[in-house]
Design a protein that fits this description.
The chain has 303 residues and is of the alpha/beta class. It has helices at 22-27, 41-46, 97-109, 123-128, 143-148, 190-198, 210-218, 229-237, 255-258, 271-287, 289-297; strands at residues 73-78, 81-82, 86-88, 94-95, 112-117, 134-135, 150-151, 160-165, 182-186, 203-207, 224-228, 245-252, 265-266. Helix 3 (97-109) crosses helix 10 and helix 3 packs antiparallel against helix 11 (289-297).
């Protein structure tokens, strides 16, 4: 499952090859902006196991509150095929992390809110045809997407992660520690390109899809699996993994491979709504509502 989506390709594009190994060292450092909200900072500091939550908001740079009285309603558009972010609930209506976040935003803005599901590839067309006001569907703000819509500030990104068998002795995942190790990865993805550029002394084994790569790790055909951290966290926390495996090392967040984060799309030029979304997202993070929502969907952190 690839979480962050472009409009026409559900796999992240391969980035350019780096010349310096320093990028790997930067990539394994925990995402600096993945910070707990202020209300839980002291609690997390004393906790035996702090959980990182994506946070792109700097409390020293508070967004100004726009004139929210000019927003009478927000018509959100999403799709139904990207659990846990967007999927159909038991009643057939949209549910998931993005949908719950949209409702929190509407509560914060104090306006009415509707959420309608449409096919993924038609979401931005529907937005520009005035069939909705905002798209919250994990669309990556690529250059093509930015030509068709404006985006709010990002509210999550998709780090890459290594996964090993739970009983594996592998700890650190620096290139010099993995020489000769077999690593499963989905063929044709940014994750494969990153391994080829940075982990040149490993044996990279590409597989046609995420399930095949995960199965290879469970069968012990490979030593590690490298892929989308959010999808892997969802798998590790679910019954399909049967407790077989666990993350190793920290997240890899190099934007030229793994993107700059996901925002909410609005019609180009709709600055009032875009600023309102930015303000609401900051408020939800500062109050702890965003953190509570994130931990409900991701008790095993992808960061």
């Amino acid at each position: 499952m690839q979480i962050v989506r472009t409009l026409f390709d559900r796999h992240a594009h391969a980035g350019v090859r780096f010349a310096a190994m320093i990028a790997v060292l930067a990539g394994v450092v925990l995402l600096a902006s993945a910070r707990p909200h202020p209300a839980r900072a002291a609690e997390n500091a004393s906790s035996p196991r702090s959980v990182a939550v994506p946070g792109f908001w700097d409390p020293r740079r508070r967004p100004e509150r726009p004139d929210l009285s000019r927003i009478s309603a927000i018509r959100f558009l999403t799709d139904l095929d990207y659990p846990p972010f967007d999927y159909a609930g038991p009643d057939g209506n949209p549910t998931g992390f993005n949908v719950d976040l949209a409702r929190l935003i509407c509560d914060e803005v104090k306006t009415t809110c509707t959420i309608q599901a449409r096919p993924f590839n038609g979401l931005l067309d529907a937005l520009n045809d005035n069939r909705g006001d905002a798209v919250i569907a994990s669309i990556a703000p690529t250059a093509d997407a930015r030509r068709r819509a404006d985006f709010s500030d990002p509210y999550y990104s998709t780090p890459a992660r290594f996964v090993a068998r739970a009983d594996s002795p592998i700890g650190e995942v620096l290139p010099e520690r993995l020489e000769g190790k077999k690593i499963a990865v989905v063929a044709g993805t940014a994750h494969e390109a990153y391994l080829k550029a940075m982990f040149t002394e490993t044996e990279i084994r590409p597989y046609p899809n995420p399930k095949a790569a995960r199965d290879a790790l469970r069968r012990r055909d490979v030593d590690l699996l490298f892929g989308d951290g959010i999808a892997l966290a969802f798998w590790l926390n679910g019954s399909d993994s049967a407790g077989c495996c666990a993350f190793r090392g920290g997240p890899f967040v190099e934007s030229r491979y793994f993107g700059e984060g996901v925002g909410i799309a609005v019609k180009r030029g709709n600055d009032l709504l875009r600023l309102a979304l930015n303000w609401a997202l900051f408020q939800l993070w500062e109050k702890g509502s965003f953190t509570d929502l994130w931990l409900r969907y991701f008790p095993i952190s992808p960061y």
